[in-house]
């Protein structure tokens, strides 16, 4: 894949390559004076790099104080956190993920006591009254049945085995010509895409909610590491092939967070990219260097150490430290720099207070390529929770934008007999 970065002189490239090799080799050797002096910073860089690409279990970092009976049903008292004090509809997972409750609106909030009282809309599994710790999530529903929809459990052939997926038909009688493939984010699961299924169905699209390598359902990658989109896109390509084999003629990719980076890679590299009609990306990673620099700053990691960590991910010599089977080409996934190369109509939904994946690159991509990219900012939703804080607006924005993208259009070279989008004839 060609980079949009202006080429440097061969001498400069060789110098940089040599410097990079010596930097990593020095740490690998570990016995030289330079290696010993820089050992602390190097170890921190290794730790930082490995954390980015290593799948990890969710931490129950939300304290549950009590469950009480309110006038309209059960209510829950939680320790006030940046997440638990956002109004909207969310999930609370407890008992190591075996318990799941849907949490509704804020009833009261006490800044002095640092507690928040919220409605409990439904407990899907587990005994919430016994929960003391939990984790907060925007993945509101446990399965398609929870939103009143039937789904087929299907398996998609991927490298290493089969990846489970849910197939939800728009119409029970036949396959839709357009399939929406839902690509969840880092550390999440296919539950994340359930929030978009009803909108997809209203537009006449089937929905395929997939799993991919290292997400706990699909087969793990051989190295057990995330490729940040550089490897996972192949599992999305397999999902496209499955959809096409089962009646789809066109594809719309929905992606959340890292799922956005994966979707962009798919639209760029897949042999089926000509079938991808549109991308709907929620809080997507547009530029991994920007995200990593942001997290280094948040964790008070010195700038040079953070850059060293990035170098380890992208250079072949870093594999011994990171555990990656192949380096990750961060430049190839920098869509700020490659903005003009994006030729798939794309809707970017991103909250301006997202402190996990900053919204700046999304706004920048739309500014640099307004022909293809539409940016819809939200506020107060933090990361990937735009639907949760305002589902009506989220669905309205997505529906209106996709209606334009899926509108009937002429086949290339024809002036009549337009191709008709699903549900839009």
From TrEMBL:
Residue ranges of domain Peptidase S9 prolyl oligopeptidase catalytic in the record: 224-406
Transmembrane segments: 22-49
Name of protein: Alpha/beta hydrolase
GO biological process, one term: proteolysis
Region (Disordered): 405-425
Record's keyword terms, sorted: Hydrolase, Membrane, Transmembrane, Transmembrane helix
Taxonomic lineage from the root: Bacteria, Bacillati, Actinomycetota, Actinomycetes, Micrococcales
SUPFAM superfamilies: alpha/beta-Hydrolases
InterPro entries xrefs: AB_hydrolase_fold (IPR029058), Peptidase_S9_cat (IPR001375)
Signal peptide: none
A GO molecular function held by the record: serine-type peptidase activity
Keyword Lyase tagged: no
Domain of life: Bacteria
């Amino acid at each position: 894949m060609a980079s949009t970065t202006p080429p440097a002189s061969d001498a400069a490239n060789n110098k940089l390559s040599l410097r990079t090799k010596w930097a990593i080799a020095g740490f690998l050797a570990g016995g030289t004076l330079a290696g010993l002096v820089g050992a602390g910073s190097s170890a921190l860089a290794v730790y930082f790099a490995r954390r980015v690409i290593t799948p990890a279990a969710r931490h129950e970092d939300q304290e549950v104080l009590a469950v009480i009976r309110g006038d309209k049903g059960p209510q829950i008292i939680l320790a006030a956190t940046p997440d638990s004090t956002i109004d909207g509809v969310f999930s609370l997972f407890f008992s190591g993920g075996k318990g799941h409750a849907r949490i509704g609106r804020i009833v009261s909030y006490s800044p002095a006591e640092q507690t928040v009282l919220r409605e409990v809309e439904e407990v899907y599994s587990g005994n919430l009254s016994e929960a003391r710790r939990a984790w907060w999530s925007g993945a509101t529903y446990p399965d398609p049945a929870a939103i009143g929809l039937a789904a087929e459990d299907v398996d998609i052939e991927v490298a290493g085995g089969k990846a489970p997926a849910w197939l939800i038909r728009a119409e029970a009688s036949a396959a839709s010509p357009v399939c929406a493939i839902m690509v969840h984010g880092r550390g999440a699961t296919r539950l994340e895409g359930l929030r978009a299924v009803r909108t997809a169905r209203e537009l006449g699209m089937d929905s395929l909610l997939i799993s991919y390598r290292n997400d706990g359902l699909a087969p793990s990658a051989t190295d057990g590491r995330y490729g940040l989109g550089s490897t996972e896109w192949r599992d999305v390509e397999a999902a496209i092939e499955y959809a096409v084999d089962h009646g789809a003629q066109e594809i719309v990719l929905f992606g959340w967070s890292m799922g956005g980076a994966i979707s962009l890679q798919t639209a760029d590299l897949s042999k089926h990219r000509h079938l991808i009609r549109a991308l709907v990306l929620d809080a997507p990673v547009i530029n991994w260097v920007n995200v990593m620099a942001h997290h280094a700053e948040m964790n008070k990691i010195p700038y040079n150490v953070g850059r060293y960590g990035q170098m380890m991910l992208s250079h072949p010599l870093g594999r011994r430290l990171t555990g990656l089977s192949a380096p990750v080409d961060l430049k190839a996934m920098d869509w700020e720099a490659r903005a003009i190369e994006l030729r798939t109509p794309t809707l970017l939904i991103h909250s301006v207070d997202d402190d996990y994946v900053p919204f700046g690159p999304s706004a920048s991509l739309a500014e640099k390529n307004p022909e293809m990219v539409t940016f819809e900012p939200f506020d107060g939703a933090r990361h990937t929770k735009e639907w949760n804080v305002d589902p009506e607006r989220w669905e309205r924005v997505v529906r209106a934008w996709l209606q334009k993208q899926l509108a009937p259009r002429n086949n290339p070279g024809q002036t009549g007999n337009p191709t008709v989008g699903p549900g839009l004839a």
